[in-house]
Please model this.
Amino acid sequence: MMLEIKNLQKIYPNGTHALKGISVNIKQGEFLVVIGLSGSGKSTFLRCINRLHEPTSGSICFNGRDVTHCSSTELREYRKNIGMVFQHFNLIKRRSVLDNVISGRLASIPVWNSLIGNFSQELKNEALANLDIVGLAEKAFVRADTLSGGQQQRVAIARTLMQHPQIILADEPVASLDPATSHSVMQYLERINQERGTTIICNLHFLSLVRQYATRVIALKAGELVFEGVPHEIDRAWFTRIYGEDAVEVEVE
Ligand SMILES: Nc1ncnc2c1ncn2[C@@H]1O[C@H](COP(=O)(O)OP(=O)(O)OP(=O)(O)O)[C@@H](O)[C@H]1O
Ligand SMILES: [Mg+2]
Model:
């Protein structure tokens, strides 16, 4: 198992019990999608995985090593394996697309080097290659904020590739995009998953996207794991149990 998560609990300082004992194993190469109502704990779950939020109890093992109680050096090493993609892209607006992609590697570049933008040709070439993977090589030298939302999200994906991540955590990567653009972004994640074997853990709102891209699904409800299976198992009855009696499914075409 790549990730073994056991009895993960998160209680925020204000007392909110956001995760109530989540246990799940995630294999290398999976495209795992996390679903559930707003407030069910999806983002908390993702953020606990790379300890952006500190779990209150429980354990996370990565390739057999416990990373819940590791030293700060080990934590840094662990985090290098994990790329993050967010709903709002988080690009540096006024810098070029290429600089944004390169910044995915900044943790391992001396600060003075990154400050003067003195990147090696090798690094630039790798960034260009990663931009090519997301179909944006021709945008390398324009300012990041001149791109559309879908293009910015693809830049964010290229940026995480600079880390050579074993896992990409994507927190609602398409929540602010239109349906066609959503599929385009999901297809790039799928391609990286299939061609590189990168494990993807992704929160999504639309079940039609879940059915198309997930190899496995978990559903959270009020901080508890209520479903684990493959997408086509989510029938009407499961849908109601996960989202509640009043929920109506909305399709992304
Ligand atoms: N930093 C925080 N401090 C206190 N409570 C928090 C914090 N972050 C999240 N919560 C609470 O934890 C619970 C789970 O939140 P979380 O953001 O994980 O849900 P979510 O499933 O990602 O929701 P959404 O679909 O709206 O993004 C909610 O009750 C939320 O209010
Ligand atoms: Mg969230």
Summary: Residues 12, 14, 16, 18, 36, 38-44 surround adenosine-5'-triphosphate (ligand 1) (CB under 6 Å).
